# Entry
Amino acid sequence: MTTTEPIKNVVLVHGAFADGSGWRRVHDLLTARGYRVSIVQNPLTSLEADVAATTRVLDLQDGPAILVGHSWGGTVITEAGVHPRVAGLVYVSALAPDAGETTAQQYEGFAPTPEFVIDIGADGYGYLNHDAFHAGFAADVSEADAAFLADSQVPVDMAVFGTVVGAAAWRDKPSWAVIATEDKAFDQAMLQHMASRIGADITNVPGSHALFITQADTVADVIVKASLNSSR
# Structure
C-alpha cells in the first residue's frame, strides 16, 4: 500500500517470552515526535490469536500505519500486515516467513543458538531458561533488568512455530529490518537471509535480542524512516 497521507500511526508487536511493556522507550521516542503509537499484547497461544490481537489494534487506527514486529512478532506482522491500514512493515530482529511456510522452517540450514535455551513444559508451552536468560535474550541490559524480564516473561505455545503462515504482507508492502549483530536467539546469517529475501532496507546495530529495549533510538529512527518512505 502506497499512500499520499502522512503516516503518523505506529503499531508495535512484541515477540515470544515478552510483553508489550518492552516497547516503552520506542513508544516514548515516537510519541515525542508526534506519532500515535499503539502496542499489541499478544496472547502467544496461537498464530491465529496473535494475528487477531494485532488486527483488533489495526482496526482502531484512524489512518495508515507502520506495523512493527520483534522476533516472533515478525511472523505475526507478516500475516496481519495484509490489513488495509498497513502501509509498511518493520522487522526488529524478526522472523519473516513466506505464505505457505512455517516459522520453524526459517531455522533450517542455519547454525544452532546454544545460549538461547527454551524449557518446554508438559503442556507444550515454552519459557526461556531463567539461568540462561541474561546471556541468551538480553546480554546488554543490567543484571537487575534481565532478572525482571526473566521473571515477567510470557510463555509461548511452541506449536505456533509449526503453524503454516497464510499470507505474506511483505510481498506487497515495503519493508525495513533492524538486526542486532550480537543476537543470540538467531544465527546472524539467518537474520540477514530473511531480511534480504523480503527485500527489506536493512540497518545493522550492535545489540542483543533485546534491541527493542537497548537500541530503542535506532529502532525508532527506522520506524520514522519507514513512515516517511511508505507515504511516497
